[in-house]
Amino acid sequence: MGQAAPQDDSSIIVSLSEAAMHMYSAAIDALPFAEDKKFHKRADVVLEGMRKLRSALGDAASSSRPSPAVIVELSNVRRRYDSLMEHAAAAPGSSLGQQLYVTRVHAKLSAEEVANGAGLPTHLPDELEAGGTPNDDEAAKIRDTIAALGGVPGTEHLQHHESEPEHHEAEEHHDHDGSHVNGHEEHFAEENAG
Description:
Layout: H1 9-29, H2 39-61, H3 68-90, H4 96-106, H5 111-118, H6 124-129, H7 136-148, H8 165-172, E1 180-181, E2 184-185, H9 186-191
Antiparallel strand pairs: 1-2
Helix pairs in contact: 1-2, 1-3, 2-3, 3-4, 4-7
């Protein structure tokens, strides 16, 4: 019998990460709808595991023997993590930590930059991302920061928008009987048309 060629550390790390991500992807695909009461509990378990994997891959990518395969895998894990965090942050009952994470990533800001800009301890954003709870003063600063950065991405449809006068004037010129396409406002259908 032939012996398998020995693998270097980076290929072992990548193989283990790929196996872990296979399980995490299956768990993500099996999550209930975001409105389900069990959604956050299950998503938080997956996110916690992915944070550990992301941290281990980050350490491996920072080693004295870097590998392109490790940084590619780290990038893949970060993208999938960010995607799940976006889904969790937009779901009813999301935590301020999830909302802050997604908002700062969308704004291309680090945890430290957001903390400094909001007048928060620099360790707080990472603690909140991992499930920590802010005090009332910190929560107010976080909400103000999220609002200043444009709100939580993906929740625009949940926010109450004041109608603009020009919008009402434009609607007055439309025939309201024909302003819906398959139950949707005509302007949404036009925006999303091929």
